[in-house]
Amino acid sequence: MMKTVGRTVGGIIVIFVVLIFAIFSVGRNRLQTASNVIGVPVSMDSASIERGAHFAAISSCNGCHGGDYSGDIFINEAPIGYVPAPNLTSGAGGIGSNYTAVDWEMAIRHGVAKDGRALVVMPSYHYDEYSDQDLADLIAYMQSLTAVDNDLGSRKFQFMGNIIFGVLAYPSSSVVQVDHLLVGNNSPVKAPTPEYGEYLIEIGSCGSCHAKNLAGNPDPALGPLGVNITMGGELQGWELEDFSTALRTGITPSGNELDTVMPWQNYAQMDDIEVEALWAYLNSVEALPNNQP
What is the CATH classification number for the domain harbouring 150? Predict the structure, then answer.
C-alpha cells in the first residue's frame, strides 16, 4: 500500500516538475523570438530631427532611457532577473551604433528588438498608433543622438522571470497586443480637435499610468499609479487654462504639485494646439468614476 502511494506521489511530482519546465520553456521561447516587420523611410534633415525631438519628449522616452538616452536599469532583482532600458545612443554599449531604421521601427512600434526578442516593458501597444511620418521623424532624432558611453549589459531573466514575463504577463505584452499587420497610417490633422487629442494620448502613452479608459490606475501591480483624468475624476471643475498650467508648471488649480512620476516637464513642451487637442479629447470621453483595485 505504501509503495503504491509513494509511486503515485512520485509520479505527481515528476509531472509537476515537467509542467513547470514546460511553462518555463514556453516563456523563454516567446521572449526570445518575435515576428519581423517592415520599417519606414527616414530623412535625416534638420526639420525631421527637430520634429522627432518633440515626439521623443511627448512620448517620454527619457523617462526610461535617461535624460541623455544613455539607458538605465529598469529591473534588477531576484527572482525576476536583470532588465535594462538600453542605451539608445551610438556610444559604447549603445544600440544606436547598429540599429537601422527598420530596427528602430521594430522596437518602437512593434515591441521587437533587433535580435528578435520580445521587449517586455516597451509600451509599443501605445506607440503602434504612431503615423509613418511622425515615427520616421522620431527615428531620425534617435539616430542623431549624441554618443554616450554606457554599457548596461544584456537582459538576463532568471527562472521565474521567464515564467512571469513569458507566460503570466505575456498576453498583455506589446508583441501580443499590437496588431502587427495594421500599424502604419497617417495621423489626424494637427488641430485642437478630439481626434488629434486622442492621437496624442496614445503616442504619449497616457494609458500606461492612467489606465486604458483613463479613469486611473489604483494598482501598482498593473503599472505606475495615475489618477482618473476623465471629467469624472481629478479634472472635474477644471478649465482649459487650469489644464494648460498643470501641464506646463506641474501645479494644479488647488496649488498641489504633480507627482514626479507624471512627466509634465515633457508635456510642457507641447504647443497650444496640442494642449487644446488633449483638452478637447478629455472633454469628449465619458466621465467615469475612479477605477477600483
Answer: 1.10.760.10
